[in-house]
Amino acid sequence: MEVILAKRAGFCFGVKRATQMAFEAAGKHQKTFTLGPIIHSPQVVKKLEDMGVGVVKDLSGVQDGTVIIRSHGVMASELDEAHRKQLEVVDATCPFVKKAQDHVKYLSDAGYEVLVVGDADHPEVQGIVSYGDASRVYVVASGDEVRQLPKMAKMGVVAQTTQSFDNLKSVVTECLRRGGEVRVFNTICDATAVRQQEATELAQQTDCMVVIGGFNSANTRRLTEICTELQPKTYHIETAAELRPAWFVGVNKVGVTAGASTPKWIIDDVLARLEEINNSH
Amino acid sequence: MEVILAKRAGFCFGVKRATQMAFEAAGKHQKTFTLGPIIHSPQVVKKLEDMGVGVVKDLSGVQDGTVIIRSHGVMASELDEAHRKQLEVVDATCPFVKKAQDHVKYLSDAGYEVLVVGDADHPEVQGIVSYGDASRVYVVASGDEVRQLPKMAKMGVVAQTTQSFDNLKSVVTECLRRGGEVRVFNTICDATAVRQQEATELAQQTDCMVVIGGFNSANTRRLTEICTELQPKTYHIETAAELRPAWFVGVNKVGVTAGASTPKWIIDDVLARLEEINNSH
User: Fold this and answer.
1) H or E element: which one contains A115?
2) What are the helix and strand counts (H, E) for chain B?
3) What is the CATH number of the domain that holds A245?
């Protein structure tokens, strides 16, 4: 059985950077914690906990120490609270997410109504949105939702970094249809698109796909969906321990990919376990 | 034979305004002329000539008098020249075209590369373009042409007022694909779309179409194309004198529409002539 690992499997730039910053802080500071999970990988979160870095849901019970801001970013008010309480802040917000936050603030201050293309329930989006005037920022999943919005003369548009280009396009087209000014900052990070493209190609060439990543990771779940459509024999796992030898009986080629928040050590474990399964067949 | 006139046949807002301004100026000032034809209607141009208002191609031979700026607008340098020569200026540029010119100037001054969606040969577009820094303004007919352009971080987009929404959409989509900032002022005037939509509906209901307007009028020619596609018995005329009774033999319903630069008196003449033809059958 041949095992093919996708070139861009695993950590994207922002997640890699956030994880490094968190592990560095863990070694340096006492009383360190992350505000929400640093990335959507329970294994990384657990590793940090083992090093004394816990997760808090909010800052209400925190009076001192070091707070690490996760890669997805947090609400502007939470960052303000951390500064007000004079906590040490390690801001591991992905620079691409930070840009989207900054654009929302700029557009909102400049008098635009701001449309954020994304998933309203995702923490990244909730963070981005919080940088604008709440009464004039809207989260829209697609162009259809733009039609429900009130009339607006100056429309600003940014996107959740992991959105598809088609969603951004459909929102912008509906904005254009309304006339007036439409000012778009394309904040989509192409790491997601490139990873999905590679997974698509791999799923077409192989007869089984393994997708590694947190069950709470939206981008990993989306990868799984994309692979399943092309290759029904697709398995979403978090760790090597979940692999079942029975899945690979009669399989000639297995493709492996991993979400943006999946650390290299977990991918390596999976590859090693696949090697074992292969040898025992 | 029933004759149905399209509701929005003839003068649009900008053309009506320009024509009124020109006729007013003709009565008031000595030595009055228009810089290029005031609108794309040879009959209106002729009427003004009869009132002593000639057409000049440029200002090189002009030293004094009143210059009327046509509805399509002129190049920024021509307007400058008129002011430098201390000519009296009656600016009949369509306010919607003026807006497009102003947006190009604003975007260009603010450091954007500016894309003008339109027909590079049209005088309106040549005027609009002249308001930006020549080295950083591009005329594009569609999204395909955007792909040929050099890399640019801040893209400004405006449209010729008579462009189709689909052209604007395809240009903006290609700009978005390049990433960075895309700032669009949708300067399309919907008079054109509304007139085309009405002509489409009329061509479907009738068994003959008459389109009235200057043979040099792009929007009239486009109306003729649209009608011909649905109704091969479509005739483009400039005046009532061109109507041939033979065209209407066996016709039950004839639809009449007219381009944006066709004056009411010409439409009325055509309707009267159609009535005559009808009575003589």
Assistant:
1) strand A113-117
2) 10, 12
3) 3.40.1010.20
A185–B184 CB contact, under 8 Å = no
CB B255 within 8 A of CB B206: yes
pLDDT tens across A74-106, in order?
999 999 999 999 999 999 999 999 999 999 999
Residues A198, A235: one domain? yes
- CA nearest A141: which of A123, A159, A114, A155? A159
Complex-level ipTM: 0.86
**Which residue, A156, A184, A212, sits at the end of a domain?**
A184
Q: Do A122 and A180 belong together in one domain?
A: yes
Interface residue A29 vs chain B (CB under 8 A) = no
User: CB distance A169–B165 less than 8 Å?
Assistant: no
Chain B residues in contact with A165 (beta carbon < 8 A): 176-177
Q: In terms of CA atoms, which chain A residue is nearest residue B161?
A: A179
**Single residue among B184, B209, B240 that ends a domain in this structure:** B184
Per-residue model confidence as pLDDT tens digits over B80-137: 999 999 999 999 999 999 999 999 999 999 999 999 999 999 999 999 999 999 999 9
User: Where does the pLDDT of residue A266 fall: very low under 50, low under 70, confident under 90, or very high at 90 and above?
Assistant: very high
For residue B133 the two structure tokens come to 């820094």
Q: What value does the mean pLDDT take over residues B140-167?
A: 94
Q: Which domain holds residue B251?
A: 2-10+190-280
